[in-house]
Every structure is written in structure tokens, then in C-alpha cells.
Amino acid sequence: MIYHQVKTVKEKIKIMKKLSIILLLVLLGNLASFGDGAIKQYPIPSFGQKIIGTSAFAESATAPGNDHYKRQMNVQSTTISPKVGECTITAWLIANGGLNVLGPFTVDCGETLSVPIDNQRWSVVIQSDYPVSVDVWIDSGSSGQY
Known about the structure:
alpha+beta; Jelly Rolls; 1 helix; 16% helix
């Protein structure tokens, strides 16, 4: 069915949803083509993870189910070698199958990016042009809403 031939709004919405999913898959496929051809994946939390290029960090499949639970995603980078001297990274926080994206955030050497997050299962995608050591972790707070 061609989009302009569709008569009902429901049919147009279905087509747009399918096109959005296809676009997301193409985008993820293009991300995988950076660097050595594959995005390296690590768990959250990860500490001292040495990366270059694009890497992904993901929570386990069991994210908190309490809607009133405060959490904070933290990302920090440090240089691996004083000779390199550059350890700025770009980070994106992603949830809900890519429908919720926060960022891009620039994180300089030694700085900690701290972003409030909800109870969804979150991932962090990091891009670095230099070899860096990255820490990614979640702080869990007390009950209450942001």
C-alpha cells in the first residue's frame, strides 16, 4: 500500500510505525559499521573499561519495576596514557527500544555525567576518537519521583 493511497488515519499510523521501525534498524546497522565493524557491548555497571570508537553499555534485563524509584546514570572517562592526553567522549542514554534518547552529552576528562533516569531499562552508547577508560554505573536513590 502506498502512503498517499491510504484513506484512514489508523492505516496511516500503522504504516508510519512500520517505517519508524525500519528506520531504527537501518540506523542501528549504520552504527555497527563504525570503527572495526561492530559495537562492543558491556554490562552496567562497568568500571575501567578501555574503549575506542563506539561502545554500548546496557542494564541487565531486570530493571527496577517501581515507578517511584529515583535512579541516576553516571558516566566518567579518564585517559589511558598521559601521552594521548585526550579523553573527551560523547554519550547518549537510550531506553524503550530507541524511542527515548537523551543526549548527545560531551563528557571531558575526569568529569562525571550524571543524568536522572526512570525505571526503564537503559543503555549508554559512547563514542570516543581516542583510547579512554570509561566507568558507567547507576546510583539508586530513595523512593520518590523526579
